[in-house]
């Protein structure tokens, strides 16, 4: 049996693991998983928010190719994904949680209710427990436990009223009205454990998609006060929001037009006015939600070990994107700062004989997860993929190609209110940026706004834009050219390397790192020739 446990959290920053040397956060179960497997320290998402980020994760494609630019953008039906490919090896990928994939309207009737909501299921996934924003299965569970049934999923996250010391600690301090054993995180974990307790006769593929530590920032006891404010690391930001906004027109606009609602009844436009103590408590509550997810993952791992499944299960833990947490006067996920795109990745390969506990310093990207899982089960990586397998790292080997930089894109168009376009003087298709980041520099190119350059060796906090500094003109030119070359190299290639000739369709592929050298792909013969 070769099982796959593919876990995603939502809005989890890379630094929020104690194995990443965080000064106070506690994630003992994920730390132990990293000790048994591999921790990728410089792993980056390719897009934000959830829909675009998950599209890259599930399809292995950069934003420029899958073109899901915001929540609600449909997933083109011509693209394959991790679930569809896994089915070729006999798996029935089960979803516990959500995927935020909107269906291609060209494949549906105009009246299809799935075209009225953006939180669709990734094609190929079988919804075992679907927890979209309505959270119906969880609300039904809470009602059965005797809780007062709320009008909607945000109402259920109202905190305990008149909780002691809440006025002094800020609105995110009071605990939730539901117990930790009944939280949405615990509920989803329980559902997976119920399934695994009876489903052990053949290989399984489970995609467990947690909401937390995504807002609303309210945590059940004891997680709500697990962290003391004096231990919370300070935010990284300029002295004032006005000074921070001077870095770039887009940043100034977004600081003053924030959209991330932080708790029930909160007005997102006031995020920039939160004082230091309130921000510290928000961060403390966020850390508590992180530790709650870590605890529930520990329950899953314990079950696998107790039932002799741990050593035949590939475990992948990652997230869709990060969270600003007040850094640069921002909350949520957006733009170009590392806090929104630097994310965790832990892979535990039970087949590996290599020394466990490796911490990989090389750059990796979300688009690499899909090829890695396929590589582990002996499937070929589809031509559409921009990423490549990381399994060689898990085997203790260096791949023949190492990424020297990472890339992501961010699309900030407003298809409803047009506020961004109006305020920044842009057309809708000009509301885009691309990032190239290596160990020394980060270059940010806007379609129709000035670029940014950060000297990361001198300014790791990204507070000083060097793009207009004459001393950096050659660096700006070099990285702009590198970014252009990257875009050209990674244009959609699904059919561009295929040729129709006397032998039928012929396809030429660039070799990509793989520990298996596709040795198991003979069982998946296709009607194409891979070399010509």
From TrEMBL:
<dbReference type="Pfam" id="PF00884">
    <property type="entry name" value="Sulfatase"/>
</dbReference>
<dbReference type="InterPro" id="IPR017850">
    <property type="entry name" value="Alkaline_phosphatase_core_sf"/>
</dbReference>
<protein>
    <submittedName>
        <fullName>Sulfatase</fullName>
    </submittedName>
</protein>
<keyword id="KW-0479">Metal-binding</keyword>
<keyword id="KW-0378">Hydrolase</keyword>
<feature type="domain" description="Sulfatase N-terminal">
    <location>
        <begin position="2"/>
        <end position="378"/>
    </location>
</feature>
<dbReference type="InterPro" id="IPR000917">
    <property type="entry name" value="Sulfatase_N"/>
</dbReference>
<feature type="compositionally biased region" description="Basic and acidic residues">
    <location>
        <begin position="505"/>
        <end position="518"/>
    </location>
</feature>
<feature type="region of interest" description="Disordered">
    <location>
        <begin position="500"/>
        <end position="532"/>
    </location>
</feature>
